[in-house]
Amino acid sequence: MPKGNAPFSQTEYDRRIALTRTAMSEAGLDAMFVTDPSNQAWLTGYDGWSFYVHQGVLLRMEGEPIWWGRYMDSIGGLRTCWMSEDNIFGYADSYVQSTVRHPMQDLAARLRDMGLGSATIGVEMENYYYSAKAHEVFVTELPEARFVDATALVNWQRLIKSQEEIAFIRKAARISERVIETAIDRAAPGVRKNDVVADIMHAGITGVDDIWGDYPAIVPLTPSGLDATAAHLTWNGDPMREGEATFFELSGCYRRYHAPLCRTVFLGKPPKEMRDAEEAQLEGIEAALNAARAGNRTCDIAQALVDVLQKHGIFREGRCGYPIGLSYPPDWGERTASIRVEDQTILQPGMTFHFMPALWMDTWGLETTETILIKENGPAEALCNVERKLFVKD
Q1: Which of 123, 156, 268, 374 has its CB 3.0 to 4.6 Å from that of 351, i.e. a possible disulfide?
Q2: Contact at 8 Å (CB) between 252 and 216?
Q3: 266 falls in which pLDDT band (50, 70, 90)?
């Protein structure tokens, strides 16, 4: 087993490092500075709520990765990373939110000391956690270095999950079942939405049996009525009402691994157009899962759904799924392949996606989704076991 409390075997981390270094070599990189918390955790095991300050992983072509961040968070690095203590670096607190110095000055000085002052360095330019100011200071402090945009280089290595990772996602799926069942059970006219969400979050953290719940990368999305015509609204303190549909977009989380799942509840008698859309959606899901086979492409999944929906007179644009696995806020997607008609990514065994054929119409929304696993043979496996339908509480 690796040092510290890292959740995976040393063989698993060695596999990840080797994959990333192969991609780095193909990109002509001498080193890479990884700021995405999900990528940091995937490479090193680091797990802490410290991504609001500058931190990251430095990966060279040889040797252990280096975790670098605020000194007080380097203690967390010692507790969660698999590397030796010599490869956990912390910068002084005087750098934090300072107007006269910047943490990237500390990192640049360390790179110069390592002989990387004129290296070709990959950075994640299109990333929530790598600021324009950080890049500006990094480039200024290392004038002889060459910086290359290596956005998603690590993310793409995460696309095919190992058996160790799939075991974690299956555990997250058990929690997803629990939180969705809690939402369905609690939904009723007059019940305040925030009270429903409180129960959902309690169920998610409590977990199932000995599978404890971690915090998900996205908070519960639970809009009702006209609010459900929008994709990403959260909740308020209003009571749930008869005659409205509420979709619940939720995910269990186990050790940062997710298995998103959505179901919709209607309080009262659904309109005929919603029932018709439900029939089309469920038929489309079956067709798409049948197309989600190793050797096919992500666009084949999307096209199978689109063809069924169009047959029923429903025209849906945009992507209908994305890879999932290890994630931190603000998103549980991996930001690589997409399930949409123009994406040509070849499906391979071990890929996991949130297949998301949601329908947002003029006066209501209908979300019925699955976390799916691409298998060696046959159609994709839906990892959660919750009946696939519009839940009606009349």
Answers
A1: 374
A2: yes
A3: very high
